[in-house]
Amino acid sequence: MNEEWNLSGKRYLAGFLYAFHAEAGVARGTFYNYFQTREDVLKAVAASLSDEMNQKIWAQSVDIADPAERMAIALRQFLHQAMRDATWGWVIVRIGLVAAPLSETVERGVMTDLEAGIRLKRFQVDNVHATIDLILGTGLMAMRSILEGHTEPNYPEQIAKMILKTLGVPDAEAHAIASKVLEPLSEDRTS
């Protein structure tokens, strides 16, 4: 990936493994009975991180009826989290590029909002599978651009607006949705 990932990502994984062994009282040999490689461990960690983030996003947006708003919140929260925590972001990007889908809950969340948007005639989609690839792929590459320092502070909002427009939301409305105040997520391990 890049130098930052190589240093911080490996440190993150090493710290996770140390903490896991200590907390669970599990020897390294026993631990690796469940995981063949460090990459398998990283996949599990990335899935756990994204699931945790997705649960916080769900809690924040569960009462929002508009699937376009829910989708924009999810995209923006994931991208802003990468801005706040580069190590977290690189774990997600590194695994997201080789182990798509990153986690079932992320894909299920996108699918739920996408299907609701189609049902409500909010989104115009020719192919659901291709649209999920478009949303997840764009989000992942946007996160990578953020982590590489090639973006502006409002890049998450720009990406959310573009995704909504691609789904058929009119420009002005997509802009308004993507520019809404983003409430902070609950403070656990993701910040």
UniProtKB/TrEMBL annotation:
Signal sequence range: none
Coiled-coil stretches noted in the UniProt entry, renumbered to this chain: none
Protein name (record): TetR/AcrR family transcriptional regulator
All copies of domain Tetracyclin repressor-like 40 C-terminal, residue ranges: 66-179
Pfam family, one: TetR_C_40
Gene3D superfamilies per UniProt: Tetracycline Repressor, domain 2
